[in-house]
Automatic annotation (TrEMBL):
Record GO biological process: cell surface receptor protein tyrosine kinase signaling pathway; positive regulation of B cell receptor signaling pathway
Domain called PH: residue spans: 25-121
Alphabetical list of PROSITE patterns matching this protein: PH_DOMAIN (PS50003)
GO MF, one annotated term: protein kinase binding
Matches recorded under Pfam families: PH
Stored InterPro entries: PH-like_dom_sf, PH_domain, STAP1/STAP2
Name of the featured protein: PH domain-containing protein
Transmembrane regions listed in the UniProt entry: none
């Protein structure tokens, strides 16, 4: 079975609009499913990691984010065993909440983990 191709980045015009709104450099982008305490189930978002903040968009072409999560105070990132094939699940442990993330494939999961750990400098606390 062939791995899914990585999603194409948002068009340049949208990228520039988002840069104006957030005023932060973008390190990584792609689809993430997110489960916060307020959610019963995972919600799928086009997500951008800008600075130390995850910005969530309902669609890849939206210029305005619907939610954001500052991960500067990330305590640790823990892997979750996934019963689903070809996806990665992990939990971001923050001082005030734990947020579960799920990627569309394991390769994307590795990239998200790497970028999150790099921008938060939690690399030594990988569990």
């Amino acid at each position: 079975m062939m791995a899914k191709k990585p999603p194409k980045p948002a068009p340049r015009r949208i990228f520039q609009e988002r840069l104006k709104i957030t005023a932060l450099p973008m390190y990584f982008e792609g689809f993430l499913s997110v489960k916060r305490a307020a959610y019963q189930e995972f919600k799928r978002y086009w997500t951008e990691l800008r600075g130390t903040t995850l910005f969530f968009y309902t669609e890849k072409k939206n210029t305005i984010y619907v939610d954001k999560l500052d991960i500067i105070d990330l305590t640790c990132l823990t892997d979750q065993n996934s019963t689903e094939k070809n996806c990665a699940k992990f939990t971001l442990v923050l001082p005030k909440e734990e947020v579960q993330l799920k990627t569309e494939n394991t390769e994307s999961g590795e990239e998200w983990r790497g970028f999150i750990l790099t921008v938060t400098e939690v690399g030594g606390h990988y569990y």
